[in-house]
């Protein structure tokens, strides 16, 4: 792609026009995101059900999460969505350098998110709240805390995998943009990657209150 | 873009003028393994699932062999592994991919007048995922097997089972992503790649059925994937949310599992509805009766199918009120299924019926599916289900739908489109013999199981009280006939590949865009993008000129 002249769109044989091809790619990503919603939905259902069953145990465990790191991470990820949206806008207006730099910024913010998440995991390992591997909680609600942390690690872990894939895609787009692979006529990959990145961000918008804020309201 | 209309005689397909998809890319293995052509990928899938069909069938053979005598031939543990292998292989490696990945892949682009699916590379990736999943599954089987049943119920699967559970879970997990990608491709292709003039209500019912199936594939499969991942972690780390010993809830697993697996039952029948809706009008030489009802009943089944899952759990400890709601919803979903049966029957009315092999399968389908569907109402009934749960009544019920229904539809479709796929005609008399053998073998195998279940024989046991033997012997006898019926096509279809008569573009004088291109089709299906000017199945009163 990088060697291709600026405005050359590679049209697959099954499409009549470049526009049809671009819109089809976007629809494909939307359908994929529908799948993803249900993928996280299974775990969120389990979370909701168990939290309704063990409200006190869940609140107690949730109060011990690292809310400061979680909040900073929320800001980081929301900012990355902003740079992503800006990157798509820049691509639309044929601003090659801006597109590449904004995509790079998005990827770096994603890396920062993962770094902070890693720090949080490290602290949790030291605190002994990693079920199955290193879990040292006592008390009547210890088994509920184990389930809370199990879901916490599964949810944030699967989310982390998505962020990692997202960083890879965004970085790839940044390189392609820098080499002049996109133009106002052809920026579908940036747009589609943007959809994915916003989805990953959106998942976090649900995880943040469920994990960090659930136990902190009320008595 | 050039277009041509198909109302005149102007564009008779010219055979032999160009290479077909079978020859255009060459004959090397590489040209097949790296192909992006939906038709070649369909062939790859056909070969793969045929292999799995016979693996699952071998397990079924051993099961029926074991049940001929009450003490059984195998140790209970071996028997558990056999029926688990049969279930996992048949559900995830044959039935779910069966029609969508083979005929769906091959025909949807042809039927909508497109050159390929929307995402050809994704299509190939989906096949590779399927192969990886299949290899994982086969490794799990040959390393020693799994004894959980295809349902992986917790806490048995997470704590007590000593089989290769995690490997089997990984196999199903990966196959799930293969399904999702196929579903995604179908949805997007049908939305975006229809030929000019091919409005939604001119779309063949086969496409509608696969569209409805794809909705389920995309929206239900991820739930299975994540649930099985949770089970695998719970098994590996002995920590989780499904085992009561850890404070978890096995019912939570069952809810999540059936939230996928009941819609999956419709994945395993909706594409069959599509095939039958193509075959019946063609061999009755009449338009499909109540096209819109058939179409919307597919969508209704896909939708309502998401809200009936807990009828698998009536005796598992759900509340009476939940039971009532799910029972009622399960009755309601029988309505769209019945609409289809009535519509096919009405299509036959005053039709000019010919009994070629595809039609024999289709007629068999209608009868067997009706029995399967009606007995579904029995087990949707709370009181009767208490009696029938986990008995052979349930086994017979779902085999009437999945084997009597879906496998018949698969074979019907395979024969119907065989000339299109291979360019050759199959030997009609052999095909009719196989169809009839399958119909009688099937009934002899599974009808006795209704009686066994009603009398109280539990499923999943290697042994049984001696008074049940006569019905079991009948069932096993039927299975041997069924096995011959299923093996026959392997020979005569294989023979036809080399010796069959050339088919020509439209041997059945059928409507539909797939018959307007040479058999086998050229690499990009159509030389000029077709334009559609009329609804499907116009066999009467005025078939299109070149059909006559």
Automatic annotation (TrEMBL), chain A:
It is a multi-pass membrane protein. Residues 1-216 form the Heme-copper oxidase subunit III family profile domain. It is found in: Cell membrane; Membrane. The keyword Transmembrane helix applies. It holds the Pfam family COX3. Its main location: membrane. Keywords: Membrane, Transmembrane, Transmembrane helix. The chain crosses the membrane at residues 27-47, 67-88, 100-119, 149-175, 195-215. PANTHER family: CYTOCHROME C OXIDASE SUBUNIT III (PTHR11403), NITRIC OXIDE REDUCTASE SUBUNIT E (PTHR11403:SF6). Belongs to the cytochrome c oxidase subunit 3 family. This is Cytochrome c oxidase subunit 3. It comes from Azospirillum rugosum.
From TrEMBL, chain B:
PROSITE patterns: COX1, COX1_CUB. Keywords: Electron transport, Heme, Iron, Membrane, Metal-binding, Respiratory chain, Transmembrane, Transmembrane helix, Transport. The chain crosses the membrane at residues 42-63, 83-112, 124-144, 164-190, 211-237, 257-281, 293-312, 318-339, 360-384, 396-417, 429-450, 470-493. Residues 32-533 form the Cytochrome oxidase subunit I profile domain. It is a multi-pass membrane protein. Residues 511-548 are annotated as: Disordered. The keyword Lipid biosynthesis does not apply. Signal peptide: none annotated. It is found in: Membrane. Its main location: membrane. Pfam families: COX1. Belongs to the heme-copper respiratory oxidase family. PANTHER family: CYTOCHROME C OXIDASE SUBUNIT 1. This is Cytochrome c oxidase subunit 1. It comes from Azospirillum rugosum.
């Amino acid at each position: 792609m990088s060697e291709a002249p600026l405005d050359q769109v590679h049209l697959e044989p099954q499409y009549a026009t470049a526009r049809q091809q671009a819109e089809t790619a976007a629809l494909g990503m939307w359908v994929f995101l529908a799948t993803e919603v249900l993928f996280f939905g299974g775990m969120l259902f389990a979370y909701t059900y168990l939290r309704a069953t063990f409200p006190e145990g869940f609140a107690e465990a949730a109060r011990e999460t690292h809310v400061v790191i979680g909040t900073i991470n929320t800001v980081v990820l929301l900012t990355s969505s902003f740079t992503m949206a800006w990157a798509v806008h820049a691509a639309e207006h044929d601003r090659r350098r801006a597109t590449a730099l904004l995509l790079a910024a998005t990827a770096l913010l994603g890396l920062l998110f993962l770094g902070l998440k890693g720090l949080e995991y490290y602290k949790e390992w030291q605190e002994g709240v990693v079920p199955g591997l290193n879990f040292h909680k006592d008390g009547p609600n210890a088994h509920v805390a184990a389930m809370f942390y199990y879901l916490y690690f599964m949810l944030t872990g699967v989310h982390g995998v998505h962020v990692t894939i997202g960083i890879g895609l965004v970085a790839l787009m940044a390189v392609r943009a820098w080499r002049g692979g996109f133009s106002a006529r052809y920026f579908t990959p940036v747009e589609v990657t943007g959809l994915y990145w916003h989805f990953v961000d959106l998942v976090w918008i649900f995880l943040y209150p469920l994990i960090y804020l659930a136990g902190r309201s009320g008595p | 873009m050039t277009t041509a209309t198909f109302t005149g005689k102007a564009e008779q397909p010219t055979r032999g003028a160009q290479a077909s998809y079978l020859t255009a890319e060459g004959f090397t293995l590489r040209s097949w393994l790296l192909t992006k052509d939906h038709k070649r990928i369909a062939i790859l899938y056909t070969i793969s699932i045929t292999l799995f069909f016979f693996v699952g069938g071998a397990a079924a053979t051993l099961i029926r062999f074991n049940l001929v005598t009450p003490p059984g031939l195998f140790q209970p543990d071996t028997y558990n592994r056999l029926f688990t292998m049969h279930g996992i292989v048949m559900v995830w490696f044959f039935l779910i991919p069966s029609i969508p990945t083979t005929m769906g892949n091959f025909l949807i682009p042809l039927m909508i007048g497109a050159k390929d699916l929307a995402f050809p590379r994704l299509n190939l990736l989906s096949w590779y995922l399927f192969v990886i999943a299949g290899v994982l599954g086969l490794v799990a089987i040959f390393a020693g097997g799994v004894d959980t049943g295809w349902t992986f119920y917790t806490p048995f699967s997470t704590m007590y089972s000593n089989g290769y559970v995690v490997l089997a879970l990984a196999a199903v997990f990966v196959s799930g992503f293969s399904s999702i990608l196929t579903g995604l491709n179908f949805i997007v292709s049908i939305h975006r790649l229809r030929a000019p003039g091919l409005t939604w209500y001119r779309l063949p019912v086969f496409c509608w059925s696969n569209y409805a199936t794809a909705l389920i594939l995309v929206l239900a499969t991820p739930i299975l994937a994540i649930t099985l991942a949770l089970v695998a972690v719970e098994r590996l780390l002995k920590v989780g949310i499904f085992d009561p010993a850890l404070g978890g809830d096995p019912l939570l697993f069952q809810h999540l599992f059936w939230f996928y697996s009941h819609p999956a039952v419709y994945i395993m029948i909706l594409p069959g509805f599509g095939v039958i809706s193509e075959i019946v009008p063609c061999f009755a030489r009449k338009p499909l009766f109540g096209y819109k009802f058939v179409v919307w009943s597919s969508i209704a089944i896909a939708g309502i199918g998401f809200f009936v899952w807990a009828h698998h759990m009536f005796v598992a400890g759900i509340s009476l009120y939940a039971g009532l709601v799910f029972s009622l919803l399960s009755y309601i979903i029988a309505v769209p299924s019945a609409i289809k049966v009535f519509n096919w029957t009405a299509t036959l009315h005053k039709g000019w019926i010919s009994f070629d092999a595809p039609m024999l399968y289709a007629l068999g389908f209608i009868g067997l599916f009706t029995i399967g569907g009606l007995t579904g109402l029995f087990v949707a009934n709370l009181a009767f289900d208490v009696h029938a749960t986990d008995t052979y009544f349930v086994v017979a019920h779902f085999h009437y739908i999945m084997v009597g229904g879906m496998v018949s539809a698969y074979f019907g479709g395979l024969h119907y489109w065989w000339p299109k796929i291979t360019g050759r005609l199959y030997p009609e008399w052999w095909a009719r013999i196989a169809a009839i053998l399958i119909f009688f073998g099937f009934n002899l195998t599974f009808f006795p199981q209704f009686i066994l279940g009603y009398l109280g024989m539990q499923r999943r046991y290697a042994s049984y009280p001696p008074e049940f033997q006569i019905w079991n012997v009948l069932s096993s006898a039927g299975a041997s006939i069924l096995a011959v019926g299923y093996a026959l096509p392997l020979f005569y279809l294989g023979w036809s590949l080399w010796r069959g008569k050339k088919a020509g573009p439209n041997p059945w004088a059928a409507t539909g865009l797939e018959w307007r291109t040479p058999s086998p089709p050229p690499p990009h299906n159509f030389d000029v993008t077709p334009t559609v000017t009329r609804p499907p199945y116009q066999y009467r009163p005025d078939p299109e000129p070149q059909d006559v």
